[in-house]
Amino acid sequence: MKLTSSGESHGKAVAGIIEGLPSNLELDIDRINKDLALRQSGYGRGGRQKIEKDRIEIVSGVRNRLTLGSPLMFAVVNRDYANWEEYMAPEGCDTSKKTLTRVRPGHADLTGLKKYDQQDARNILERASARETAVRVAAGSIARQLLGELGVTVSGYVRAVCGIEDAGEYSMAEMDAAKGNPIWMPDSAKCKEAMARIDELKAKGDTAGGVVQVVVHGLKPGFGSCMQYDTKLDGILCGALMGVQAVKGVEIGAGFEAASLPGSRVHDEIYMEDGRFARRTNRAGGIEGGMSNGEDIIVRAAFKPIPTLMKGLKTVDYVSHEATTAAGERSDVCAICAAEIIAESVVAFEIARAVLDRIGGDSMKEVRERYAALAD
To answer: What are phi and psi of 134, to 5 degrees?
Structure first.
């Protein structure tokens, strides 16, 4: 299964094509739109989210809510394009307006201008923008529905915001319920602390990042492989998450903490319980030797603070070479809730891809039968 995305932040739409979906997967379009709405929610978001009301428009590959086995093409229309058409229209527009040469620290602006031989950073930022993640969320929602047919569920929560951490252990239901909070932390006291921190940063014209945790429950052992470096499931998940805008670090299970602990406190001992192999701890985060081991897969991603600050960081104008302050392009203070549902979606897509890579199947009937035949 493969996802290709396209589209610019202020263009007509962002779009995606999913290749390799089996036929007869029944899609819940409302569920996809709900996940897209979650990407636009959360405390600390800015005015763009009031303009866009994201909804998926399926163009091909589905008939009467059932996938056909052909490439599934979809789009998420940018409502804000109506305000940008005179500057962005591919048919012809005035590119002298809405130019950006005050390159922004932390963005793709400067390096992209050099790489693609441009003079206007808008030709870089429009594609580098996190608006592209609407495609990842829609595709991940479709993948999540495929996994649901196999009894595999994906959820998560906001673990930290600018140093305020909710390090509790929660059930899938508790993590799902936390999405009703302004900041998706199950601990309401920590949620209030995080909101206060965001308010404080907003007053200073500053921004916040954080950490999200994603959990995959119910996946059978053996997905991924120990035989080649590029087939290891943890490597695939980490690479996919590092491909999300603003992610600067990923860890599985105990992660970086494992480096400071003795082996006796890191590795999960194995027992026989009711005639089955079992582990009583899950410090490996559900992956050993590059393969799922049947325990919950636990992955965390660290998102840097939004690099466009309202007060503007010091920079240089790309054309004049004069010292200046960075241009403002968005007004979010914190987008960690959006980051969480994006991370969930990326993980869901990669897990679904790993499942199909291993067992194949042209139809959902074949996929279900082959998955059920695997050892637990």
So the answer is: -60, -35
Asked whether 62 and 73 are in contact (CB, 8 A), the reply is no
> Once rounded to an integer, what is the mean pLDDT over residues 259-265?
95
Q: How far apart are CA 139 and CA 22, in angstroms?
A: 14
| pLDDT value, residue 310 | 81
Helices 364-372/336-359 angle, 10° precision: 80
pTM of the predicted model over 0.90: yes
Could you tell me the two tokens for 158? 């906001």
**pLDDT digit string, tens, across residues 287-315:** 999 999 999 999 999 999 998 888 789 99
C-alpha 36/C-alpha 16 separation (Å) is: 14
**What CA–CA distance (Å, rounded) separates 354 from 21?**
12
